[in-house]
Amino acid sequence: MDKGLHFMFCVITTMLLLRESSQTGEKNDPKMLAASKPGFGTDSRGREEGLPTLTVTTILEDPYVMVRSAELEGYCIDLLKALAAMLHFSYKVKVVGDGQYGAISSSGNWTGMIGEILRQEADIAVAPLTVTSAREEVVSFTTPFLQTGIGILLRKDTVSQEMSFFHFLAPFSKETWTGLLFAYVLTCFCLFLVARLSPCEWNEPKNEENHFTFLNSLWFGAGALALQGVTPRPKALSVRVIAAVWWLFTIALLAAYIANFTALLSSGSEQLPIQTFEDLVKQRKLEFGTLDGSSTFYFFKNSKNPIHQMIYEYMDKRRDHVLVKTYQEAVQRVMESNYAFIGESISQDLAAARHCNLIRAPEVIGARGFGIATTQASPWTKKLSIAVLKLRESGDLDHLRNKWWETSCLHKSRDRWSPLQPQALGGLFLTLAIGLALGVIAAVVELSNKSRHAAGHVKKSCCSVFTEEMCTRLRIKENTRQSQETSGRANA
Length: 492
What we know:
Elements: H1 2-28, E1 32-33, H2 43-49, E2 53-58, E3 66-68, E4 71-73, H3 75-87, E5 90-95, H4 112-118, E6 124-125, H5 133-136, E7 140-141, E8 146-155, H6 174-197, H7 214-225, H8 237-267, H9 277-282, E9 287-289, H10 295-302, H11 306-317, H12 319-322, H13 327-336, E10 339-344, H14 345-354, E11 358-360, E12 365-370, E13 373-374, H15 380-393, H16 396-404, H17 426-458, H18 462-473, H19 477-491
Parallel strand pairs: 2-5, 2-6, 9-10
Antiparallel strand pairs: 1-5, 3-4, 6-13, 7-13, 8-10, 8-11, 8-12
Helix pairs in contact: 3-15, 6-7, 6-8, 6-17, 8-17, 10-11, 17-18
């Protein structure tokens, strides 16, 4: 009798230990995790409070769903918590068994999260699941909670381009260089004109040679651009006004050039050579691919765009080599080899935020969204769509986006450099124009004063003397030299 009781006690103890071990293992399994915090909707809470319990399938992808200390966290988990609080349901989260999003296999069955919903292994799928027409035919989707597209993820040092032979011209745009050349020629011409009009600079045009010839004026302007003092030195107030304004213009211009050129050299690259998908196809340095069986792969397969067809043919022929199984594998491959990853732009933005040596190309195609998948004719589809819209209108979705896409690389990024446009130097060009106008006006006033005094001596009208002075001073240099030679021969 004692042996029988002892045997029964051992059997019961062993069964209790096995049950406890089984429950502990299930609790720590990341593929079957139920949220245990208040408000997350556990099974016990649903049964106790009479709340409906939904089985939620998801996929491990940073930052949507991640395992931290035997618990799931991330953007989708926070979204699920908010939806459960609004619609009053509890839930049980499980990670998809095959690690796939959902595509039609060779046998005609759906894999991944879509397959689990069709087999009624899960009620809804909350994950970065792209809404596509093929998926919409077998399941229902809610209003997208995130908008995205298809982009190209690159490593910065693999796309840095060599500096051109005329790289020193890069700090200014073509329009700015054109404006600078025009300002230089106009200023030199004004110096030449004002030096001829001003009596202080050229008192006796018939007997003197003006040092401010057009060539000398060009040399004077070029010397100021190089911060070098050159002759001839201006004596008239009008000429000095134009010279001073030109000096101010050149100092500010050189400061802007040096600052922008320094930023250009620090950025390491004037412009990404791979800007579009066409650039990616034309280059031969980088391999490129996407997630095997993803909606991105089928987007290129079904597209009629010639460039997209070339991308699909490239990936299909090398599918064993260029297609990756997981997003983490894709990011790791981009960082460690000459590989460009084609995928969801919003996920690539996260990779660029987490890894400062990565960058996404500017072009984004195939605008799409991430939605919550449910069974067809499910009563939860409309409820979840309305809840997602309310979260968007209240700004909660933006808050979650900023929370999980936080980055420290924005302040370090220097790749947004662009050539200095004319608008940035508009005030500088305006100041130069005003200075040129003041110089010309001052020269005309000086010549008018001299003409008024000379008119009193020769008893002519001021206008006629002023006109004669103008005609005399604007004669070309050869005529002046001929008159000087003629007067010299007469004296001889």
